[in-house]
Amino acid sequence: MATPKILIVFYSRNGSTAALAEAVAEGARALGAEVRLRRAREMVGPEVMAMAQGWAENAAAMNETYGAPTADDAVWADAIIFGTPTRFGGVASELKAYIDGLGGVWFQGKLNGKLGGVFGSTSSKHGGNESTLLSIYTVMAHLGLIIVPLGYSHPALFKAGTPYGATFISQGDTKKPGDEDLAVARYQGERIAQLAGRIAEPVSSAA
Questions:
Q1: Could you give the domains of the chain?
Q2: Per-residue burial over 113-145, b = 16 or more CB atoms within 10 Å of its CB, e = otherwise
């Protein structure tokens, strides 16, 4: 199996989505994948960030750890896995801005046939995890990605996550992802890496 190349691009404000992203990356690397882990950048200035306690500090720390995603990252990858907190039942504007910036490589057909997945977190129960993940399914279809859902293909999914992707509820940022949440995220990385390794294999000229 060829070495799969996995791009995990996410936005996180308080760390919950970042923790899921790390677990997805761990699962992908366990299958031998080469992983690029990238954090989308803020779309607002410091005066807005100052209105939410810890936002600026958390952003600075995560930006030290994770590089900003580029269109070249998406072209490089065999699979792209998006991660986002829920914003009013939909994707965070920071991640959406990155996706919108892929128009050039999309127009050139450079994203067609790559695998796609998504994971997310929300602050409250029924806060929009599933609607957010499903909204990105639509985006992935437009980009030409092959969408990889989780279904109920692993025992962890009967305890946490969704059939659409790994999820977590932070209960007002009072909790961090637990073992069951991280198990689903790791499995998502494994599942997509395994499939990406197959599509990355060179096609025989005799085929």
A1: 5-199 (3.40.50.360)
A2: ebbbbbbbbbbeeebbbbbbbbbbbebbeebeb
Displacement of CA 2 from its chain's centroid (Å): 22
Contact 156, 129 (CB under 8 A): no
Whole-angstrom distance, CA of residue 47 vs CA of residue 190: 40
Arithmetic mean of pLDDT, 152-159:
95
Q: Are 76 and 5 in contact (CB under 8 A)?
A: yes
pTM over 0.70: yes
b/e per residue, 18-28, with b = 16+ CB within 10 A?
bbbbbbbbebb
Output the CA torsion 81→159→31→139 (10° steps).
-10
